[in-house]
Amino acid sequence: MGWEDEKALEGRTGDPEDPLNTIREQCEQTEKCVKALERLDQCTERVTSRSQTTEECTEELFDFLHARDHCVAHKLFSKLK
Predict the structure, then answer these.
(1) Burial, 54: exposed, middle or buried (Cβ in 10 Å; 0-12, 13-18, 19+)?
(2) Got any disulfides in this one, which pairs (predicted)?
């Protein structure tokens, strides 16, 4: 760690915030992610309302994670050193 890095960290306490968590939260608010999350929530409600079902919400979960990670990928690498 160089002098400039130490100087930048002087006023901080604790661990620095992970930019991944912040970017994920921002991406979850985009239209595409909101729609995918709504479909996942609808599927979850449908599955939990039934006593016997073979349906799982795997596809809906993967769709949501894919949409979020696609958004994150474009923003995260500009934050990394």
Answers:
(1) exposed
(2) 27-71, 43-57
Measure the CA–CA gap between 31 and 35, rounded to whole angstroms. 6
Q: What is the pLDDT of residues 13-38, one digit of tens each?
A: 677 778 899 999 999 999 999 999 99
User: pTM of the predicted model, to two decimals?
Assistant: 0.74
**Which region, left, alpha or beta, applies to residue 14 given φ > 0 means left and ψ of -120 to 50 means alpha?**
left
Mapping DSSP to helix (H, G, I), strand (E, B) and coil, where does residue 33 land? helix
Domains detected in the chain: 19-76 (1.10.287.20)
Distance CA 23, CA 78 (A): 11
